[in-house]
Amino acid sequence: MPADRQDRTSPLTSRAQRVSPRDLAAALLSLAAVLGASPVLAQATKPSPPAATAAPVKLDTVTARRGDIRQTVDSAGKLQLHTWADVYAQIGGQVKEVLVAIGDTVQVDEALLDITPTQQPAKVESNRAQMARLQADLADQRAQLEFAQLQFKRQTQLKAQNATREEAFESARMNASSATARVDAITAQIHELEATLKIDEEARQKTLVRSPIAGTVVSMAARTGQMLAAAQPAAPLLRIADLSEMTVAARVAEDDVTRLRPGMAASFTTPGYPGKHWSGKLRQVIPIPADGTGEQGKQAFYTVLFEVKNPDRELMSGMSAQVQFVVAQARDTLLLPAKGLGAQDEDGQYNVNVLDAGQHVAARKVKVGLRNSQQVQILSGLAAGDKVLVGPVPNVLPAPDAGTTSAMASGS
Protein backbone atom coordinates (compact mmCIF):
# COMPACT_ATOMS: atom_id res chain seq x y z
CA MET A 1 0.00 0.00 0.00
CA PRO A 2 1.36 3.51 -0.78
CA ALA A 3 2.62 5.58 2.08
CA ASP A 4 0.23 8.53 1.48
CA ARG A 5 -2.85 6.16 1.70
CA GLN A 6 -1.71 4.81 5.00
CA ASP A 7 -1.23 8.32 6.38
CA ARG A 8 -4.89 9.32 5.58
CA THR A 9 -6.39 6.48 7.72
CA SER A 10 -8.28 7.93 10.78
CA PRO A 11 -7.15 7.09 14.30
CA LEU A 12 -10.69 5.86 15.18
CA THR A 13 -10.51 3.28 12.44
CA SER A 14 -7.21 2.22 13.67
CA ARG A 15 -8.54 1.81 17.22
CA ALA A 16 -11.61 -0.16 16.04
CA GLN A 17 -9.47 -2.47 14.11
CA ARG A 18 -7.40 -3.06 17.25
CA VAL A 19 -10.49 -4.21 19.38
CA SER A 20 -10.67 -7.94 19.54
CA PRO A 21 -13.98 -9.87 19.01
CA ARG A 22 -13.82 -11.24 22.52
CA ASP A 23 -13.74 -7.77 24.02
CA LEU A 24 -16.70 -6.61 21.93
CA ALA A 25 -18.90 -9.52 23.03
CA ALA A 26 -18.12 -8.89 26.68
CA ALA A 27 -19.12 -5.23 26.34
CA LEU A 28 -22.50 -6.07 24.80
CA LEU A 29 -23.28 -8.53 27.60
CA SER A 30 -22.53 -5.93 30.24
CA LEU A 31 -24.85 -3.41 28.57
CA ALA A 32 -27.74 -5.90 28.39
CA ALA A 33 -27.40 -6.71 32.06
CA VAL A 34 -27.55 -3.06 32.99
CA LEU A 35 -30.70 -2.42 30.92
CA GLY A 36 -32.54 -5.49 32.24
CA ALA A 37 -31.77 -4.67 35.86
CA SER A 38 -33.24 -1.09 35.66
CA PRO A 39 -37.07 -1.03 36.27
CA VAL A 40 -37.29 2.60 35.33
CA LEU A 41 -35.77 2.00 31.99
CA ALA A 42 -38.02 -1.06 31.44
CA GLN A 43 -41.15 0.90 32.13
CA ALA A 44 -39.98 3.71 29.91
CA THR A 45 -39.65 1.33 27.03
CA LYS A 46 -43.25 -0.03 27.42
CA PRO A 47 -46.12 1.95 25.63
CA SER A 48 -48.71 3.50 28.00
CA PRO A 49 -52.32 2.13 27.71
CA PRO A 50 -55.08 4.57 26.49
CA ALA A 51 -57.16 6.34 29.13
CA ALA A 52 -60.52 4.60 29.88
CA THR A 53 -63.73 6.52 28.83
CA ALA A 54 -67.17 6.19 30.49
CA ALA A 55 -69.95 4.61 28.35
CA PRO A 56 -72.73 7.16 27.52
CA VAL A 57 -76.13 6.66 29.16
CA LYS A 58 -78.95 6.41 26.61
CA LEU A 59 -82.13 8.29 27.58
CA ASP A 60 -85.55 7.71 26.04
CA THR A 61 -87.33 11.06 25.62
CA VAL A 62 -90.37 12.45 23.82
CA THR A 63 -90.84 16.05 22.70
CA ALA A 64 -93.84 18.29 23.27
CA ARG A 65 -95.05 19.74 19.95
CA ARG A 66 -98.03 21.68 18.65
CA GLY A 67 -100.60 19.91 16.50
CA ASP A 68 -104.19 18.65 16.22
CA ILE A 69 -105.85 15.98 18.34
CA ARG A 70 -109.18 14.16 18.07
CA GLN A 71 -110.98 12.07 20.65
CA THR A 72 -112.96 9.41 18.83
CA VAL A 73 -115.22 6.41 19.29
CA ASP A 74 -114.23 3.58 16.95
CA SER A 75 -116.63 0.91 15.70
CA ALA A 76 -117.29 -1.48 12.83
CA GLY A 77 -120.19 -1.00 10.44
CA LYS A 78 -121.82 -1.91 7.16
CA LEU A 79 -122.96 0.14 4.19
CA GLN A 80 -126.63 -0.14 3.27
CA LEU A 81 -129.14 1.52 0.94
CA HIS A 82 -130.51 4.87 2.05
CA THR A 83 -133.45 5.37 -0.35
CA TRP A 84 -135.13 2.47 -2.14
CA ALA A 85 -138.56 1.24 -3.25
CA ASP A 86 -139.89 -2.28 -3.77
CA VAL A 87 -142.09 -2.87 -6.80
CA TYR A 88 -145.09 -5.28 -6.75
CA ALA A 89 -147.74 -6.26 -9.30
CA GLN A 90 -151.15 -4.67 -8.60
CA ILE A 91 -153.12 -7.02 -10.85
CA GLY A 92 -153.13 -10.73 -11.51
CA GLY A 93 -151.81 -11.99 -14.79
CA GLN A 94 -148.78 -13.26 -16.64
CA VAL A 95 -145.51 -11.38 -17.14
CA LYS A 96 -145.46 -10.62 -20.83
CA GLU A 97 -142.09 -8.84 -20.95
CA VAL A 98 -139.39 -7.62 -18.56
CA LEU A 99 -138.31 -4.20 -19.83
CA VAL A 100 -135.23 -3.58 -17.60
CA ALA A 101 -132.26 -5.48 -16.19
CA ILE A 102 -130.27 -5.32 -12.95
CA GLY A 103 -127.98 -2.29 -12.96
CA ASP A 104 -130.15 -0.22 -15.32
CA THR A 105 -130.86 3.39 -14.37
CA VAL A 106 -134.57 4.26 -14.50
CA GLN A 107 -136.62 7.44 -14.10
CA VAL A 108 -139.82 8.08 -12.20
CA ASP A 109 -142.87 6.43 -13.86
CA GLU A 110 -140.71 4.50 -16.33
CA ALA A 111 -142.21 1.15 -17.43
CA LEU A 112 -140.51 -1.87 -15.89
CA LEU A 113 -142.78 -4.86 -16.65
CA ASP A 114 -145.60 -5.59 -19.08
CA ILE A 115 -148.30 -7.93 -17.68
CA THR A 116 -151.10 -9.63 -19.54
CA PRO A 117 -154.06 -9.44 -17.12
CA THR A 118 -156.12 -12.44 -16.14
CA GLN A 119 -159.32 -10.54 -16.94
CA GLN A 120 -160.39 -11.25 -20.51
CA PRO A 121 -160.49 -8.29 -22.92
CA ALA A 122 -163.92 -9.56 -24.12
CA LYS A 123 -165.42 -8.61 -20.76
CA VAL A 124 -164.19 -5.07 -21.17
CA GLU A 125 -165.73 -4.86 -24.61
CA SER A 126 -169.00 -6.25 -23.27
CA ASN A 127 -169.13 -3.56 -20.62
CA ARG A 128 -168.57 -0.90 -23.24
CA ALA A 129 -171.38 -2.31 -25.41
CA GLN A 130 -173.69 -2.36 -22.44
CA MET A 131 -172.84 1.27 -21.79
CA ALA A 132 -173.80 2.18 -25.32
CA ARG A 133 -177.17 0.37 -24.97
CA LEU A 134 -177.95 2.08 -21.68
CA GLN A 135 -177.18 5.47 -23.12
CA ALA A 136 -179.59 4.75 -25.99
CA ASP A 137 -182.29 3.62 -23.54
CA LEU A 138 -181.73 6.78 -21.52
CA ALA A 139 -182.26 8.95 -24.57
CA ASP A 140 -185.54 7.10 -25.36
CA GLN A 141 -186.77 7.37 -21.79
CA ARG A 142 -186.00 11.08 -21.68
CA ALA A 143 -188.11 11.57 -24.81
CA GLN A 144 -190.99 9.66 -23.23
CA LEU A 145 -190.56 11.71 -20.08
CA GLU A 146 -190.87 14.95 -22.01
CA PHE A 147 -194.06 13.70 -23.69
CA ALA A 148 -195.53 12.50 -20.43
CA GLN A 149 -194.72 15.82 -18.74
CA LEU A 150 -196.38 17.67 -21.61
CA GLN A 151 -199.54 15.54 -21.32
CA PHE A 152 -199.63 16.08 -17.58
CA LYS A 153 -199.29 19.83 -18.03
CA ARG A 154 -202.20 19.88 -20.49
CA GLN A 155 -204.40 17.80 -18.22
CA THR A 156 -203.56 20.13 -15.35
CA GLN A 157 -204.80 23.12 -17.38
CA LEU A 158 -207.97 21.32 -18.44
CA LYS A 159 -208.69 20.30 -14.90
CA ALA A 160 -208.45 23.88 -13.82
CA GLN A 161 -211.21 24.67 -16.37
CA ASN A 162 -213.23 21.56 -15.43
CA ALA A 163 -212.78 20.42 -19.04
CA THR A 164 -211.32 16.93 -18.41
CA ARG A 165 -212.12 13.89 -16.42
CA GLU A 166 -210.39 13.01 -13.20
CA GLU A 167 -209.25 9.67 -14.61
CA ALA A 168 -207.44 11.36 -17.53
CA PHE A 169 -205.69 13.77 -15.19
CA GLU A 170 -204.48 10.97 -12.87
CA SER A 171 -203.33 8.87 -15.81
CA ALA A 172 -201.25 11.75 -17.18
CA ARG A 173 -199.70 12.38 -13.74
CA MET A 174 -198.84 8.67 -13.34
CA ASN A 175 -197.27 8.47 -16.80
CA ALA A 176 -195.05 11.45 -16.03
CA SER A 177 -193.93 9.97 -12.71
CA SER A 178 -193.24 6.57 -14.29
CA ALA A 179 -191.19 8.12 -17.07
CA THR A 180 -189.11 10.05 -14.49
CA ALA A 181 -188.47 6.84 -12.53
CA ARG A 182 -187.34 4.97 -15.64
CA VAL A 183 -184.93 7.78 -16.52
CA ASP A 184 -183.49 7.71 -12.97
CA ALA A 185 -183.07 3.92 -13.09
CA ILE A 186 -181.23 3.96 -16.40
CA THR A 187 -179.05 6.82 -15.15
CA ALA A 188 -178.10 4.77 -12.08
CA GLN A 189 -177.19 1.78 -14.24
CA ILE A 190 -175.00 4.01 -16.37
CA HIS A 191 -173.20 5.33 -13.28
CA GLU A 192 -172.58 1.81 -12.07
CA LEU A 193 -171.25 0.72 -15.42
CA GLU A 194 -169.05 3.81 -15.61
CA ALA A 195 -167.43 2.77 -12.33
CA THR A 196 -166.81 -0.70 -13.73
CA LEU A 197 -165.30 0.73 -16.89
CA LYS A 198 -163.10 3.01 -14.81
CA ILE A 199 -161.84 -0.02 -12.88
CA ASP A 200 -161.20 -1.80 -16.17
CA GLU A 201 -159.25 1.20 -17.44
CA GLU A 202 -157.16 1.40 -14.29
CA ALA A 203 -156.50 -2.33 -14.51
CA ARG A 204 -155.41 -1.90 -18.11
CA GLN A 205 -153.02 0.83 -17.06
CA LYS A 206 -151.63 -1.41 -14.30
CA THR A 207 -150.52 -3.95 -16.83
CA LEU A 208 -147.46 -1.72 -17.20
CA VAL A 209 -145.60 -1.80 -13.88
CA ARG A 210 -143.82 1.57 -13.49
CA SER A 211 -140.97 2.78 -11.31
CA PRO A 212 -142.07 4.76 -8.23
CA ILE A 213 -138.71 6.57 -7.89
CA ALA A 214 -135.66 7.42 -9.97
CA GLY A 215 -132.69 5.17 -9.32
CA THR A 216 -130.97 1.92 -10.21
CA VAL A 217 -132.42 -1.57 -10.47
CA VAL A 218 -130.57 -3.46 -7.72
CA SER A 219 -132.60 -6.69 -7.55
CA MET A 220 -135.17 -8.53 -9.67
CA ALA A 221 -137.39 -11.55 -9.05
CA ALA A 222 -139.62 -11.27 -12.15
CA ARG A 223 -139.17 -13.31 -15.31
CA THR A 224 -140.99 -13.55 -18.60
CA GLY A 225 -143.96 -15.94 -18.45
CA GLN A 226 -144.26 -15.80 -14.67
CA MET A 227 -147.82 -15.94 -13.29
CA LEU A 228 -148.69 -13.26 -10.76
CA ALA A 229 -151.49 -13.21 -8.22
CA ALA A 230 -153.61 -10.13 -7.66
CA ALA A 231 -152.36 -9.92 -4.07
CA GLN A 232 -148.81 -8.75 -3.45
CA PRO A 233 -146.28 -11.62 -3.53
CA ALA A 234 -144.05 -12.44 -0.59
CA ALA A 235 -141.00 -10.95 -2.33
CA PRO A 236 -140.93 -7.80 -4.46
CA LEU A 237 -140.65 -8.18 -8.20
CA LEU A 238 -137.97 -5.48 -8.37
CA ARG A 239 -136.12 -3.10 -6.06
CA ILE A 240 -135.16 0.39 -7.21
CA ALA A 241 -132.52 2.25 -5.15
CA ASP A 242 -131.00 5.71 -5.27
CA LEU A 243 -127.27 5.00 -5.06
CA SER A 244 -126.16 8.66 -4.93
CA GLU A 245 -126.35 8.49 -1.13
CA MET A 246 -125.62 5.57 1.20
CA THR A 247 -126.26 4.88 4.88
CA VAL A 248 -123.59 3.58 7.25
CA ALA A 249 -124.93 1.40 10.07
CA ALA A 250 -122.29 1.17 12.82
CA ARG A 251 -122.45 -1.11 15.87
CA VAL A 252 -121.30 0.83 18.95
CA ALA A 253 -120.74 -0.75 22.37
CA GLU A 254 -122.88 0.37 25.28
CA ASP A 255 -119.81 1.87 27.00
CA ASP A 256 -119.30 4.33 24.13
CA VAL A 257 -122.80 4.97 22.74
CA THR A 258 -123.64 7.35 25.60
CA ARG A 259 -120.95 9.73 24.30
CA LEU A 260 -122.56 10.07 20.88
CA ARG A 261 -124.99 12.80 19.84
CA PRO A 262 -126.80 13.59 16.55
CA GLY A 263 -124.82 15.97 14.38
CA MET A 264 -121.39 14.68 15.42
CA ALA A 265 -118.80 14.35 12.66
CA ALA A 266 -118.24 10.78 11.48
CA SER A 267 -115.79 9.25 9.03
CA PHE A 268 -114.96 5.76 7.81
CA THR A 269 -112.72 3.71 5.58
CA THR A 270 -113.48 0.54 3.68
CA PRO A 271 -111.06 -2.23 2.58
CA GLY A 272 -112.10 -1.82 -1.05
CA TYR A 273 -110.49 1.64 -1.23
CA PRO A 274 -107.34 1.66 0.95
CA GLY A 275 -106.33 5.09 2.20
CA LYS A 276 -109.56 6.81 1.14
CA HIS A 277 -111.87 8.41 3.72
CA TRP A 278 -115.56 9.31 3.58
CA SER A 279 -117.32 11.61 6.04
CA GLY A 280 -120.83 12.47 7.19
CA LYS A 281 -122.93 13.62 10.16
CA LEU A 282 -124.43 11.30 12.77
CA ARG A 283 -128.18 11.12 12.14
CA GLN A 284 -129.67 8.69 14.63
CA VAL A 285 -128.90 6.30 17.44
CA ILE A 286 -131.35 3.39 17.46
CA PRO A 287 -132.43 3.20 21.14
CA ILE A 288 -132.81 -0.59 21.28
CA PRO A 289 -129.94 -3.13 21.22
CA ALA A 290 -128.97 -4.78 17.97
CA ASP A 291 -130.21 -8.32 17.43
CA GLY A 292 -128.46 -10.92 19.56
CA THR A 293 -126.78 -8.44 21.92
CA GLY A 294 -127.52 -7.45 25.50
CA GLU A 295 -129.07 -10.81 26.37
CA GLN A 296 -128.12 -13.02 29.35
CA GLY A 297 -125.24 -10.85 30.49
CA LYS A 298 -123.83 -10.17 27.02
CA GLN A 299 -122.58 -6.72 26.15
CA ALA A 300 -125.16 -4.64 24.29
CA PHE A 301 -124.39 -2.97 20.98
CA TYR A 302 -126.48 -0.20 19.43
CA THR A 303 -126.90 0.73 15.78
CA VAL A 304 -125.81 4.25 14.87
CA LEU A 305 -126.75 5.65 11.46
CA PHE A 306 -125.30 8.38 9.27
CA GLU A 307 -125.38 9.17 5.56
CA VAL A 308 -122.56 9.69 3.08
CA LYS A 309 -122.64 11.11 -0.45
CA ASN A 310 -121.82 8.64 -3.21
CA PRO A 311 -121.86 10.64 -6.47
CA ASP A 312 -119.46 8.31 -8.31
CA ARG A 313 -121.29 5.13 -7.18
CA GLU A 314 -118.04 3.79 -5.67
CA LEU A 315 -119.67 2.58 -2.47
CA MET A 316 -121.96 -0.44 -2.61
CA SER A 317 -124.42 -1.97 -0.21
CA GLY A 318 -122.88 -4.58 2.09
CA MET A 319 -119.34 -3.15 2.16
CA SER A 320 -117.68 -3.21 5.58
CA ALA A 321 -116.59 0.07 7.19
CA GLN A 322 -114.23 1.06 9.99
CA VAL A 323 -116.02 4.03 11.55
CA GLN A 324 -114.79 6.87 13.75
CA PHE A 325 -117.13 9.29 15.53
CA VAL A 326 -115.40 12.53 16.59
CA VAL A 327 -116.42 13.15 20.20
CA ALA A 328 -114.10 16.17 20.69
CA GLN A 329 -111.16 17.77 18.90
CA ALA A 330 -108.62 20.58 19.30
CA ARG A 331 -106.47 22.27 16.65
CA ASP A 332 -103.00 23.82 16.97
CA THR A 333 -102.64 22.80 20.60
CA LEU A 334 -99.68 21.52 22.62
CA LEU A 335 -99.41 17.73 22.40
CA LEU A 336 -97.28 15.11 24.12
CA PRO A 337 -97.02 11.38 23.33
CA ALA A 338 -99.07 9.50 25.91
CA LYS A 339 -96.11 7.35 27.02
CA GLY A 340 -94.43 10.47 28.44
CA LEU A 341 -97.00 10.88 31.22
CA GLY A 342 -96.18 9.66 34.68
CA ALA A 343 -98.46 8.87 37.60
CA GLN A 344 -101.56 10.96 38.29
CA ASP A 345 -101.82 12.75 41.61
CA GLU A 346 -104.84 13.55 43.75
CA ASP A 347 -105.44 16.86 41.94
CA GLY A 348 -105.77 15.10 38.59
CA GLN A 349 -102.41 16.35 37.33
CA TYR A 350 -99.61 14.14 36.01
CA ASN A 351 -95.94 13.99 36.98
CA VAL A 352 -93.34 14.29 34.22
CA ASN A 353 -89.54 14.59 34.16
CA VAL A 354 -88.18 17.27 31.82
CA LEU A 355 -84.62 16.92 30.51
CA ASP A 356 -82.80 20.19 29.72
CA ALA A 357 -79.86 20.82 27.40
CA GLY A 358 -77.42 20.22 30.26
CA GLN A 359 -78.77 16.71 30.84
CA HIS A 360 -80.41 17.82 34.07
CA VAL A 361 -83.78 16.39 35.03
CA ALA A 362 -86.51 18.57 36.56
CA ALA A 363 -89.82 17.20 37.87
CA ARG A 364 -92.97 19.03 36.77
CA LYS A 365 -96.73 18.66 37.05
CA VAL A 366 -98.85 19.01 33.93
CA LYS A 367 -102.56 19.38 33.36
CA VAL A 368 -104.01 17.45 30.43
CA GLY A 369 -107.13 17.88 28.32
CA LEU A 370 -108.16 15.65 25.42
CA ARG A 371 -106.40 12.35 25.02
CA ASN A 372 -106.43 9.31 22.78
CA SER A 373 -104.38 6.15 22.58
CA GLN A 374 -101.32 7.97 21.20
CA GLN A 375 -101.33 11.60 22.34
CA VAL A 376 -102.56 13.88 25.10
CA GLN A 377 -103.35 17.59 25.07
CA ILE A 378 -101.17 19.59 27.48
CA LEU A 379 -103.04 22.52 29.03
CA SER A 380 -100.26 23.68 31.40
CA GLY A 381 -96.84 22.67 32.69
CA LEU A 382 -94.93 22.27 29.42
CA ALA A 383 -93.86 24.36 26.44
CA ALA A 384 -93.29 23.44 22.83
CA GLY A 385 -89.90 21.76 22.43
CA ASP A 386 -89.60 20.44 25.98
CA LYS A 387 -88.08 16.96 26.15
CA VAL A 388 -89.81 14.64 28.59
CA LEU A 389 -88.05 11.60 29.95
CA VAL A 390 -89.86 8.32 29.39
CA GLY A 391 -89.82 5.99 32.37
CA PRO A 392 -87.97 6.40 35.68
CA VAL A 393 -84.96 8.68 36.10
CA PRO A 394 -81.70 6.64 35.84
CA ASN A 395 -79.33 6.65 38.83
CA VAL A 396 -76.37 7.82 36.74
CA LEU A 397 -76.83 10.59 34.19
CA PRO A 398 -74.11 11.62 31.71
CA ALA A 399 -72.04 14.61 32.76
CA PRO A 400 -72.83 17.86 30.93
CA ASP A 401 -70.55 18.68 28.03
CA ALA A 402 -67.67 20.97 29.06
CA GLY A 403 -68.12 23.24 26.10
CA THR A 404 -71.84 23.54 26.80
CA THR A 405 -71.17 24.27 30.50
CA SER A 406 -68.67 27.02 29.73
CA ALA A 407 -70.96 28.51 27.11
CA MET A 408 -73.87 28.57 29.57
CA ALA A 409 -71.62 30.16 32.21
CA SER A 410 -70.42 32.87 29.84
CA GLY A 411 -73.99 33.51 28.67
CA SER A 412 -75.20 33.96 32.24
UniProtKB/TrEMBL annotation:
InterPro entries: Beta-barrel_RND_2, MacA_alpha-hairpin_sf, MdtA-like_BSH, MdtA-like_C, RND_pump_MFP. SUPFAM superfamilies: HlyD-like secretion proteins. Signal peptide: none annotated. The keyword ATP-binding does not apply. Residues 248-326 form the CusB-like beta-barrel domain. Residues 124-151, 176-203 form a coiled coil. It is found in: Cell envelope. This is Efflux RND transporter periplasmic adaptor subunit. The keyword Membrane does not apply. Belongs to the membrane fusion protein (MFP) (TC 8.A.1) family. Keywords: Coiled coil, Transport. Pfam families: Beta-barrel_RND_2 (PF25954), BSH_RND (PF25917), RND-MFP_C (PF25967). Residues 85-235 form the Multidrug resistance protein MdtA-like barrel-sandwich hybrid domain. Residues 333-391 form the Multidrug resistance protein MdtA-like C-terminal permuted SH3 domain.
